[in-house]
Amino acid sequence: MPVGNALSFAAMSDPVPASAYSKANPFPARLTENRRLNQPGSAKETRHLVLNLAGSGLQYEAGDSLGVQPENRPSEVAELLTRLRASGDEPVSPVMLRLPAPRPLRDVLASGLALAGPTRKMVETLAARATSPDEQARLAALLQPEAKDLLAAFLAEREYVDLLAEFPSAQLTPQEFTDHLRRLMPRLYSIASSPKLHPAEVHLTVAVVRYATNQRERAGVCSTFLADRVPLGTAPVPVFVSSSHFRPPEDGAKDVIMVGPGTGIAPFRAFVQDRVASGATGRNWVLFGDQHRATDFLYESEWSQWLAQGRVARMDTAFSRDQAQKIYVQDKLRENAAELWAWLRGGAHFYVCGDAQRMAKDVDAALHDVVAQQGGLEPAAAAEYVKQLKKDKRYQRDVY
Q: CATH code for 74-178?
């Protein structure tokens, strides 16, 4: 399926200086590899993706992220056009896009605007336009002052197309509709490769998002764009490099502890590649977790090879659903408390990548507990020790 009509990047026939490629003007990269990392039977779909940056002049470092400007699913765009009773050729200039000139409705729905996350303002507009008594009553009930929680739950289950489908008597013009939508923002993915090994390409480790709400199949905009809708080697993927504070230690003699469950392993694959390529002498300790060893051990063969070569000193894994009691990476930290403390006392750097809401908090709590227990410190003193690790940039997190 052809892609690449994103509004935010320059015509690919125009020569652009390397320094011009940025978030405002992404580089049209080509996808050269797309393979599933999970084995058959896994409940997850994680993809290893390779994008070619040749000719872009873009440079990155281990720890950086790649920004990807996605496109919406054509099926969603088509249904919206049907619900709006529009051809798609209507010129629109949505307020959020600040376009220099109007563009066809189909284009801005495909690559300019986010189709999820409807707001109260949209419900108010529909209430003002609805002509069906039943629809008017439903919308009025949602907008009652005491119905805030009800409205929030209602909107959380829906996208804009749902509202047009459920309240068809409220007819909006293409311009009115698009003025309610937010800009379609790029997604950032931790780069899973080192430029020392792959200077002209970036590797990504992407969890493909698919779910259902309001009896409709939903899809992560960018993850399914990359996994399903970009053909290998032909269509452009608008990308840019986003620099990060997240870096392996400049001193290659320093030991490194890396905690990265799930797709959080991505930057640590880059770290190890980087340290191996640069001849770093410090030890590498990797902690990885997922659901099942048999199906979800991402990059298992690479880790096994690095372990056999001594490039990775140790690797601890936590596969949560391989036993009756779930085991997570924070449990492995506590299980190896003495070793962790010895590494930290020896000057090791401690890194965490992944889910901010639960995993990173649980790992942080485990780190505090280990410092307190092994160091014989009161909680306040342990907290001060961890705070100092952060100040010294020996404790870094890339969480989302």
A: 1.20.990.10
Quote the longest CA-to-CA distance of the chain.
74
Query: pLDDT value at position 20?
Result: 76
256-399 belongs to which CATH class? alpha beta
Residue among 394, 333, 396, 323 nearest 362 (CA): 333
Query: Whose CA is closest to 80, among 40, 61, 101, 108?
Result: 108
Whether CATH 2.40.30.10 fits 18-69+186-242:
yes
Residue 221 belongs to what H/E stretch? helix 221-224
pLDDT single digits (tens) 357-381: 999 999 999 999 999 999 999 999 9
- Cα dihedral 32, 190, 284, 36 sign: negative
330 is written with which tokens?
């924070």
Q: Quick check: helix, strand or coil at residue 4?
A: coil
Distances in whole angstroms, Cα of residue 11 to Cα of each of 216, 315, 349:
35, 46, 44
pTM of the shown model: 0.92
Q: Residues 6 or more apart from 198 whose CB is under 8 A from it?
A: 273
Q: Where are the domains of the chain?
A: 18-69+186-242, 74-178, 256-399
